[in-house]
């Protein structure tokens, strides 16, 4: 139903659907989903399943830990010969779920990965030619908490790419560091960065790209969406646009498009929460299979883009070729992750020295640790201790920002005044960029 809510005003003139539900079984757990759920556990099970296959072209690692000490998984799909340190690589980097409520993005990402892991000649041709890097869940805390758009601490991570904090945005900071390292590496061509999202108003799949002064670069980035439109009936060129809106300046697409090499194509791939219109103007609701199929079609489009010719594969080829030392190859990939942590540790050390803080070399770790500097993080199930922990992190952020001579924002310093509970509907007027999924109705930000 639609109408006006007496307590919260007119909802900014938006329609509001409301319904009554009777919780008749007190021992049961009830969950309400905006779209087909894709929880953290599904991703963990999928990764475990692929690892059990023991193929020599799938590798998973942990890039860093989140505020609540969840893993940020990074997945590499490529032929083993491409992992050698001095081998020249063409990298395609794909992320999803920076907005945790956009679960269709995870299904698109899964479909893309499943296609690349297939036994087809097309999949092998792509693995031979490219190194595919995936961060399939960029905001694991937000997904676990049931937030729609924000992280644990109320940040829209897709507005903080310009200067992410290692305290509040560790997943973003580590991902950015890895991307910039690829960009500076003479042995790496970072051909694509694609960030997958879901859209709540427009239908079909479509892309956002950037506007460049270089006409050749601007024309080149229009090629991939056109090819994808030929492969996917649910992809719309009409909805695809290239812009430089100021409000999107902190997004991955805009920031990376401004600082990566001109050879890099940066896109946001959007897919509707609801439906698409086919060539016969029929409106077809999306299903899980529909989202996965769009991911497969994205993979197929890379074949067209690179003009790859698949070669026949003999069915007798073993999953792991003889002579391939997968442990050694994983060590090469681990070096990339360790490099990111060394950069972050050096940056933190420089920050401490500039602020006059003393560091003890006696107790310093000899190897970079696989976590941000949260040594006293509480258990993720403890809501009371989590509240105080968030407050501590925000105080630490304020000190960091003051060292940079940047005043802390209201968003950074605001603190919930009650304990975190289960997800609630967002009250009217809740400021953009903050999710009320973790806050009570008496929080001043939601008034």
Structure description:
- The chain is an alpha/beta fold and 447 residues long.
- The chain has twelve helices and ten strands.
- Helix 3 (121-129) crosses helix 9 (288-306).
- The chain is globular and about 60 Å long.
Low-confidence stretches: 1-8, 357-384, 406-447
Most strands sheet: 8 strands, mixed
Strand and helix order: HEEEHHEHHEEHHEHEEEHHHH
Secondary structure class reads: alpha/beta
Query: So what's the overall shape?
Result: globular
Tell me the strand order in the biggest sheet.
Answer: 1-2-4-3-5-8-6-7
Q: Rg, please?
A: 23 Å
Output the number of helix runs.
12
How many E strands?
10
- The multimeric state of the shown protein is single chain
Entry summary:
This protein is an alpha/beta fold. The chain contains twelve helices and ten strands. The longest helix has 29 residues, at 326-354.
